[in-house]
From TrEMBL:
SMART domains (UniProt xref): Ku78 (SM00559)
Annotated family: Belongs to the prokaryotic Ku family.
Keywords: DNA damage, DNA recombination, DNA repair, DNA-binding
Gene: ku
Name of the featured protein: Non-homologous end joining protein Ku
Native source organism of the sequence: Lentzea alba
Domain of life: Bacteria
Amino acid sequence: MARAIWSGSVSFGLVSIPVELYSATEDHTVHFNQFQRGTSDRIRYKRVNERTGREVPYDKIVKGHEVDSGEYVVVEPEELDDIAPGRSRTLDIEAFVDLDEIDPVFFQKTYWLGPAKAEFSRPYLLLAQAMKKTNRAGIAMFVMRGKQYLTAMKEDNGILAVHTLFFADEIRKPKDVLGVAPEGRAPRGKELDMAVSLVESMADDWRPKDYRDTYTERVTKLIKAKEKGREVVTEAEPPEATGVVDLMEALQRSVEASKKKRGKRKAG
């Protein structure tokens, strides 16, 4: 049984429900230690005073924020604790918004929220069903591990899911980050019709179980192969970019290939 990473209450109106928060995801990434090439010597990181070269104990370290070139304001841990947002243990729902209005770019991480005890199931299920029926998400702020989070709470198969959200000023605008922005007149005519045809020919139901992390699988195989002294097979190079003059032909061939693939799938 997983352990709760936060406990408190969900509050909406005058209703308060004791709850516990659990991570909804887990990381399967293969993690590596670092070694000096040609040796079995581990690389370790130390907290070192750049002036003296001596290692500094963790309890002797404070945080500093650069306010000017080479000038810092030093902040003690106790000072950060004193201004920590809302020390209460409450997920206070401030509003219910249409779930479809939340742009996916705002979603950060997902957690499952459960009642702290079985006796709190009735108000918990009541809130979940009310949000399901209205297709709305509860927008709430809460504090976890010394940090304040903006969240969207929604119903998911009878369970409350809490999605941490990025704040508006954390979202980058495309024009501020794209090295090359798309330009020219919007495509239309036969090219657009063919592109739409390709999209429709590849339409399918969303089945998450059909997809898996193949890169992590390859990393695991690489490690096992090297452990046994076997030859490592490299991955094929990615395809070259499609030229503008070849675009129509590439679309046509893609549609035909997609239809054949779908035909074989139905036949099987």
